[in-house]
Amino acid sequence: MNRLARLALLALPLSLLACPHASRPPAPTPPPPAAADPPPEEPVVVRMSKSGLGFRVTEVDGTIGAPRSRLAKGAPLSAEDEKRVLDRLPPLAALPGDEATFALRDRSQPPPRTGKTVKDAFPPPVARPAAIPPQPGPLKVTRHLPVGEVKAAPHLSVSFSQPMVAVTSHAELERVTPPVTLTPTPPGKWRWIGTQTALFEPTGRFPMATEYKVEIAAGTRSATGGALASDERWTFGTPPPHVETAHPDGGDPTELEPLIFVGFDQAMDPAATISALRVHAGGAPVEVRAATDDEIEGDRATRALVRQAVKGRFVVVRPRSKLPRGARVTVTTPKGTASAEGPRVTDQDQSFGFSTFGVMAPVELSCTWGEACPPLHPLTLRFSNELLVSKFDKASVRVEPEIPGLKIVASGSAVTLTGRTRGRTKYKIT
Question: End-to-end alpha-carbon separation of the chain, Å?
């Protein structure tokens, strides 16, 4: 490596850091062949930059300070010379899309031509209904609801044959009391629907177990001057208490101290209803008491019924002592049971029943709907009482002869056996 290369490598890092105008480092000089003699050292020129922060290292031929060669001045070619140079190039091949017309937007659509000229007014005038002339003659009640015995009464409506109030604002109509007397009058309010119909809306609904009387006095006048010739009277009534839900009610036998749920279609007085209930087991009367909240929460079926029922419309009782085994139990809401909503009482007994658990015993062994038991078909043994599945021991069931792959499942009041049973074989289950 000659002296110039060594100086260039040593000065390169400083030059790059000191001179921001340095473009790139000089290319490294390949090493000379090993057998050749080193070339003679060339003179080196070091020039500092004007700022004093960098320098440039160059090689020169000849003596130091020899003048640098200058570029020759050129002149532009003439048109003929340019043509001779361009004629040497091969011709350019035309490509698709080199030439295209100027892109113009779509022309505007012509304005629509007028068709039939419509000279009617827009918007058209609103056709107002013709005024209904006052009907001559006396005032009449054309319709009234409800009438007679109804399951429930959401409201009371009365319609007249002539306008009873003037057409005005809702606020004005609310201050006009209809000429209707309702006895008894539950919490609620009257309002007019139009000019000829009055509506009484109770708070919620009309109370149950109540008989209502409605009267419109003779001489009541309409807004057009018509008068009611005679009194108008009618009645309607809501029903006394009715048992809608009962538990337990038939089905599988129950335990000896069951919770008894009785649900009604209206509000009841719990204390009066419980004292009126009659419970008999095997024909003998049974004393009952109101069930506690903890007892209700501990019984899954009763808890579900209480959560679904309307508050105040049910009672839950429990026997004061254990019921006899295998007994038929009847629960009766007697005639004369009162409601908490109105004075009307039940006019007949309402009863339901269930049975208690008897002695545990098998009652049926079946495998199909017929008498024959096909091979590989499950065998089902049913008992008189529901099984306590949590304490059921599969080892307590023995089958002779042994059934390969025997599986025993206890559920409800039945035990089911499945396995590879064979044909023409008699099995004994213990």
Answer: 111
